[in-house]
Amino acid sequence: MQSNNTYGKLCNRFKELDRLQHAITYLSWDQMVMMPANGSQARSESIAELAGISHAKLTAPEVADWLSELEGVELDANQEIRTSVHEMKRVWSNANCLPAELVKEQIVAGSKCEMGWRTQRGDNDWQGFIKNFKPVVELSRQEAKLRQQASGTATPYEAMLALHCHGDTESLIDSIFAELRAVLPDLLQRVIEQQGAVSVSEKANYPVAQQQQLNKEMLDALGFDFNSGRLDQSMHPFSTGGAGDSRITTRYDSSTFLEALAGTAHEAGHASYEGSLPEKWRGLPIGESRNMCIHESQSLLFEKQVFYSKAFMGFMAEKIQNTMPSAAHLRGDDLWRLGTQVVPGKIRVEADEVTYPLHVMLRYEIESGLINGDIEVDDIPELWNEKMQSLLGVDTRGDYTNGCMQDIHWTDGAFGYFPSYTIGAANAAQLFAKIKQDHPDWQTQLQQGDIQFIREWLQDKIWSKACELQSQELMQSATGAGSGADALIAHLEARYLRGEY
Amino acid sequence: MQSNNTYGKLCNRFKELDRLQHAITYLSWDQMVMMPANGSQARSESIAELAGISHAKLTAPEVADWLSELEGVELDANQEIRTSVHEMKRVWSNANCLPAELVKEQIVAGSKCEMGWRTQRGDNDWQGFIKNFKPVVELSRQEAKLRQQASGTATPYEAMLALHCHGDTESLIDSIFAELRAVLPDLLQRVIEQQGAVSVSEKANYPVAQQQQLNKEMLDALGFDFNSGRLDQSMHPFSTGGAGDSRITTRYDSSTFLEALAGTAHEAGHASYEGSLPEKWRGLPIGESRNMCIHESQSLLFEKQVFYSKAFMGFMAEKIQNTMPSAAHLRGDDLWRLGTQVVPGKIRVEADEVTYPLHVMLRYEIESGLINGDIEVDDIPELWNEKMQSLLGVDTRGDYTNGCMQDIHWTDGAFGYFPSYTIGAANAAQLFAKIKQDHPDWQTQLQQGDIQFIREWLQDKIWSKACELQSQELMQSATGAGSGADALIAHLEARYLRGEY
User: Fold this and answer.
1) Rounded CA separation B489/B481 (Å)
2) pTM (predicted TM-score)
């Protein structure tokens, strides 16, 4: 009885935190999508106030007491409550394991480095940048060690990784990346040799209003409910919010339309996951999305597996004929060819499906070494150039702007995030392979713009599970195996070497 | 020293509350303007959480301690700090003088009554309505008595009035309304007799996109800065937010455009006041807008005195010629005639400038009697019908829908708000009379769409003062006299009997 009561108190506290997080979420959306420029100062102060209240409520002494009260207690042998408390502890521990002084120093050093980077990047000013970046790395190393002590991970970097990819260990990622490394550079060369010249061009004038209409119609087909969400524009596409109120943004360029559509499909995957988490666990850590490797698998499944498939491109071509006259001559096959062009380049965010993992692996190798103490900041440019050459055959020497200074992630110490992009792509391929196996008529359905069978499969295997399972248990239960590289490699070979779908 | 330190603690607490209020403000804006329907539940819960945290921070024991520490202390003979503490006490006392149990009962009874009203109004169901309304009145009477005890007002109703119109007493309002009552019904009859038939018509098709453009251009002319604000659409026009981020909404109807423009001008007045309060007192009660009678004077000055003037209508006619072809034939005089039509009717929100005060006086007479215990709920319909007949010459017998059930205000106990509409109109006329006196060339400037001289005058006399002065001191310092009916009467006679501006 006592333990149930204590568990109830913890649930109430986490639901309070969830209501505060709701406020932060939509105020942040507004800041990026709606707020006029001069609202910035007051908005930042308000969000900081809410974050402060939230942190104080999570780290309050009574929460520690409640959690330790439950330590020795047999929780009715109820697996669900045990998992729920386990996830609460994880969230609590993440918030508690760093001294306030370190967090403050990190915020100051991180903002300084990011602010400097905004101009230094354009100026190709690596020497200027590392003055601010070295303290950021030093503080992140301290953070990683403290997190490692609290969580018992194998390495300091793995403790950082666990913030984003909890459950996916450094050794798992190493083995998946090793497999990719053995295949991708060679695959890339074969794709480039084999890839025919694209005779169609996407360059024309595509009015933004027509693109908006097209994006909305595509979202309808993808099962996005406009009574429970919005589509808006912002500088950088993102999705946020959750059940009942999912907010997607995209960015339009009147000279091209495929990128906006792909971005919207990507965000629709994120939004579908967040919007479909189970009502019964709303506001509790057990009810949240599993980790970023699973999250990114949902967005990449929607974008790479569904949207860019020949079948769905055929459906989109029909939509386009009715909505956007200037692209009405493009057939499904033309769209597919435009969408599956492979061109090795310097910039990660512009990379295609084949080269993207190579960009990520390069960053992973550098950032894990940096945090584990095997690599120093001064070593980065040479390592970057070597790896760009060996993985992608691209020369970045002397070009910091489009080389090791291109990403914002490291500037404020967000180490451990990059791998989720590629583990997400691998998970997406693995999940979709199983979906195709379960639904042999998948292409016919995608051709009709009907993805209900996919939503139902994901609802059953992923969305309804939230944090009930650890990430590898989740992949195992959904596909019969933990995360691996095989499905992604098979997918890339089928699409890019054999042009199958 | 000790007292300064205590004052500093109070300032910090009120600034915290301001940051929480910021969150509530923009989350509420989003709820009304952006949020999809299914977001409602989570949003309400989040806002309630923030309101609860806010209330707890304001009513925490230490705030009472800090305020009483300052009771006996001579605050450096610093008038500004004395006023600041006085306003803090007022806000604190308003939040503290009701038992939590009563507040909870009021919320339950008020929601029930408002929810019922939403269908009962359309059903003309007075008997059904009063079942829910009588408990609301009973609880409001209790509230009023407790507030009277805490604030020492002359009557219970005056304590409710003070929530919205602090500083404007019941006896002041009685005397202004008595003067209006002696003049307006007769003035109304003369205007109706004299008013010629309007030969132009506003009925045509005015595309919403063109109207939006026109409203934005008008806001530019009115000095609204889109780097510090937005204009959007919502069911009911309103303005919210403050310095750096003012949010105005309006409502478009493609068969008419004057109403949307007038509404936008009205909200621009509110937004200009809130957006121009002094930076030095940001977040403190002394830095807030004075009261709703002053607030409404700013919106009505922008709407009735500026926007509907012949001079500004001339300016708008030129704008319209460039923006909205279907209204290009309308001259300034035509717009002015369309905007100054006087037609007595049953509905307050549709009322013109001449009849509006009569609608308000009727409600004031009934609600003050209701709260002071001189009138019972069952008396309302007969009183309503009598007053509509004697003040406006309109028969509302049997029509509850468009009679005493038309307003939402009373349903959840918002007694004491109505007078601000008409005291605001009187203040607006009085302020504008002084502006015209100080700027004899006012019509020339309005004709050019230049209202900078008005903004500067208001900045100097009203906006920069915030709560430094009590409301009647503020009117006195700005116009040389406290609030009165004379300027409003003179304005209505000049515009509606003599067609002067």
Assistant:
1) 16
2) 0.94
Low-confidence ranges of chain B (pLDDT < 50): 1
Q: How far is it, in rounded angstroms, from Cα A485 to Cα A423? A: 8
The pair of structure tokens assigned to B488 is 């409003």
Distances (CA, A) of A275 to A238, A269, A457: 14, 10, 15
- Are β-strands A245-250 and A229-233 bridged in parallel, bridged antiparallel, or unpaired? parallel
Separation between Cα atoms, residue B479 and residue B436, nearest integer Å: 11
Residue of A nearest to B26 (CA): A27
CA distance B226 to chain A (A): 7
**β-sheet bridge partners, residue A250:** A233
The answer to whether B244 contacts A36, with C-beta atoms less than 8 Å apart, is yes
CATH code reported for the domain at A208-312+421-487? 1.10.1370.40
Interface of A with B (CB under 8 A): 16, 19-20, 22-23, 26-27, 30, 34-43, 45-50, 53, 225-230, 241-245
Query: What are the tokens at A436?
Result: 């195709």
Cα-Cα-Cα-Cα dihedral of A248, A253, A254, A260, to 10°?
-40
Q: Which residues on neighbouring strands pair with residue B245, listed in sequence order?
A: B242
d(Cα A17, Cα A29) in Å, to the nearest integer? Answer: 18
Alpha carbon of A267: minimum distance to chain B alpha carbons (Å)? 17
Q: For residue A369, with 0-12 CB atoms within 10 Å meaning exposed, 13-18 middle and 19 or more buried, which class applies?
A: middle
Task: Check if the beta carbon of residue B478 is closer than 8 Å to that of residue B431.
Answer: yes
The predicted complex's ipTM stands at 0.93
Residue type for B51, please?
A: A
CA–CA separation, A222 and B36 (whole Å)? 18
Residue B3, pLDDT score? 67
Q: At residue B374, what are phi and psi to the nearest 5 degrees?
A: -90, -15
Choice among A87, A170, A267, A296 that is catalytic: A267
Least CB–CB distance from A35: residue in B20, B243, B245: B245
Q: CA-to-CA distance for B275 and B222, rounded, in angstroms?
A: 13
For residue A230, the cross-strand partners are A247
* Per-residue pLDDT, A3: 67
Q: Which of B31, B32, B46 to mutate to test the interface with A (most CBs of A within 10 A)?
A: B46
Residue boundaries of the structural domains of chain A: 2-96, 208-312+421-487
Whether the Cβ atoms of residue B186 and residue B390 lie closer than 8 Å to each other: no
* Residue A245: its H or E element: strand A245-250
Instruction: Judge whether B306 and B316 are in contact, CB under 8 Å.
Output: no
Q: Which residues contact B475 (CB under 8 A, 6 or more apart)?
A: B427, B430, B431, B481, B482, B483
Report d(CA B343, CA B350) in Å as an integer: 10
Q: Which residues pair with A242 in a beta bridge?
A: A245
Q: Note the pLDDT of residue A200.
A: 74
Neighbours of B197 (CB within 10 A): 5
Q: What's the gap in Å between the CA of B256 and the closest CA on chain A?
A: 25
Name the phi and psi angles at A288, rounded to 5.
-90, 170
Q: What is the pLDDT along chain A (501 residues), one digit of tens a residue?
A: 456 799 999 999 999 999 999 999 999 999 999 999 999 999 999 999 999 999 999 999 999 999 999 987 766 668 899 999 999 999 999 999 999 999 999 999 999 999 999 999 999 999 999 999 999 999 999 999 999 999 999 999 999 999 999 999 999 999 999 999 999 999 999 999 988 777 777 778 999 999 999 999 999 999 999 999 999 999 889 999 999 999 999 999 999 999 999 999 999 999 999 999 999 999 999 999 999 999 999 999 999 999 999 999 999 999 999 999 999 999 999 999 999 999 999 999 999 999 999 999 999 999 999 999 999 999 999 999 999 999 999 999 999 999 999 999 999 999 999 999 999 999 999 999 999 999 999 999 999 999 999 999 999 999 999 999 999 999 999 999 999 999 999 999 999 999 999
CATH numeric code, B1-96: 1.20.58
